[in-house]
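Case 680 in the screening queue. Each case pairs one protein sequence with one candidate compound; here the compound is calcium ion. For every case the pipeline is the same: read the inputs, emit a complex structure as tokens, and attach any notable structural observations.

Predict complex for case 680.
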Amino acid sequence: QTPPKGSPAHVQTALQKVDGNFIRANAAKTPDWPSYGLDYAETRFSKLDQVNASNAKDLGLVWSYNLESTRGVEATPLVVDGVMYVTASWSVVHAIDVRTGQKLWTFDPQVDRSKGFRGCCDVVNRGVALYQGKVYVAAYDGRLIALDAATGKTVWEKNTIEGQKGSYTITGAPRIVKGRVIIGNGGAEYGVRGFVSAYDANTGERKWRWFVVPGDPSQPFEDASMARAAKTWDPSAKYWESGGGGTPWDSFAYDPELNLLYVGTGNGSPWSHKARSPKGGDNLYLGSVVALNPDTGKYVWHYQETPGDNWDYTSTQSMILADVKVDGKARKVLLHAPKNGFFFVIDRTNGKFISAKNFTEVNWATGYDKNGRPIELAAARDGSKPYDAIPGPFGAHNWHPMSFNPQTGLAYLPAQHVPLNLMDDKDWKFNEDKPGRPHAALGWNTAKFANAEAPKSKPFGRLVAWDPVAQKEAWGVDYASPWNGGTLTTAGNLVFQGTADGRLVAYDARNGTKLWESPTGTGVVAAPATYLVDGKQYVSVAVGWGGVYGLAQRATEKQGPGTVYTFALGGTAKMPEFVQYRMDKLVQGVKYDPAKVQAGTMLYVANCVFCHGVPGVDRGGNIPNLGYMDAAYIENLDKFVLAGPAMSRGMPDFTGKLSNEDIDSIKAFIQGTADAIRPK
Ligand SMILES: O=C(O)c1cc(C(=O)O)c2c(n1)C(=O)C(=O)c1cc(C(=O)O)[nH]c1-2
Ligand SMILES: [Ca+2]
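Case 680 output:
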């Protein structure tokens, strides 16, 4: 007797099978999508071809599912035998029956909503991992939680940041390698020491932890890799007090034959190299790809893409393991397009540099020498004057997943241009909250000023189809907005990508011809997934505008809720009604003292700007712009800022941080800016 599909007994049987062998076997034909990047190589290349370049035009909606969230949705849905697991903002897990589009269960880890500010970049989550009947979610507040796949009930829970000091979070999807749950933490904008940990999937027991940067050199180093790294840091500024950074907050890949786990590491903490390590140095292992032994967590090799990071150039972007021919020789390589704007091909057996070429405009280096060191432009590191960092901290490519299609030999990545003007803050002191310092009141420690001068160029996005062997673009598609979704590519010669302007598009993987598109209501940042259920191919994407760029900016006039859309050939379901974005007129009539505008500007930078944007200039993302609010809100700003009603939606409590006089100054800045830009 087989249990009915979607029943707890069916889910239990279907999910019990998922383990390392299952993930490896699935890679041959990819009927299911059992791991974040589809397979251990993180290719996001599906071998399914029922949906292909000749029939993609017949795709239609099968169902949509309301994730009941209003913030960013970054998850790739995992699907095994018609059971989907996907996460929404605040790390809420949804189990959905693909056959009906109905909810099986949800799990809310109850992250304290008033602590949203403890992560830099929206209260997002990139998805779950599956193993032997369990679902693993890493919650925003640092807890790693194992759930029963059939019921959503907690099996075990571990606090991954227990005993560590600083503002740590988790946004990434766990991966399961050899029965261990691998997870990294974020927090390098605040001042933390990055690390990656492995937990026994069955018991939750911690098996190993590898730190990305060294700790206090007067204490014993954890291992030889830390002793070696410490030689590349200048201890005079006590980097261990502000943590040093390097947080591996997103990407991993695993090569079972080589028995290597690849980790993409993050930026320096603080961002300014001079503040962190005044005499210079490469500051290992920031901005690197590091190979670890997955059994022990021991360092094997590294390749550093951004030595002495000075621009928030993380190397946490998706890494893809591919086998390609370079100069006629078959090579096992790792493909990587980190924030710094260069596309890297490295030998994944030993970490040796093969080649790098910029995939978009960059102004910090002209290229890489044959040893794999960047040839830098001095102005980029100078820091004494306002300087447009290109790429800026938003990255030439951020976490939005890349895919690689071995049939076309092309990698597909959402590239972008988002300039930010940076200058060193020479007086920076760790955790000193001073007006004018970017988000200093919320715990940020960048030792940089942002946009002291307005950037000279405008942001844009571009889907880039990159030939990693020739190191050049094969084709590309321009978008008016940056922050477009991750990609999926298939044996049907397709590339699927969601866009910031609210569409899911299918392109011909060979030449970029647009074959099909569907509206998605709001902007898409996550990557789609494809899979078979009862022999039929589906394409699903989780939609919810957000992530760091999406907090204060947007490219649609439509708004949430977070929604999963599932498409198939011949689908005829109706799209849900899209909600008009709510934005009032430019604020008018709030009484203020013009003498307070300057003080208000500095307070706004230290408390408000990265979430709410510049009043009246930006237009709001998943958080409203204060220049486009009804005057009553701004007049009563204290009621919102001091333990206000929006705390249940992620607004911090500024009690004790902002006085009533400070709030008056912020009001003056908001109304003053609105008045200054109002068309005469
Ligand atoms: O340094 C870090 O620890 C850290 C963490 C995260 C994160 O966990 O989301 C981001 C970043 N940095 C970051 O630099 C960044 O651009 C970024 C974008 C996003 C996002 O989800 O949209 N997260 C993060
Ligand atoms: Ca960062």
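Case 680 observations:
- The pocket of calcium ion (ligand 2) is lined by residues 188-189, 266-267, 312, 314 (CB under 6 Å).
- The radius of gyration is 24 Å.
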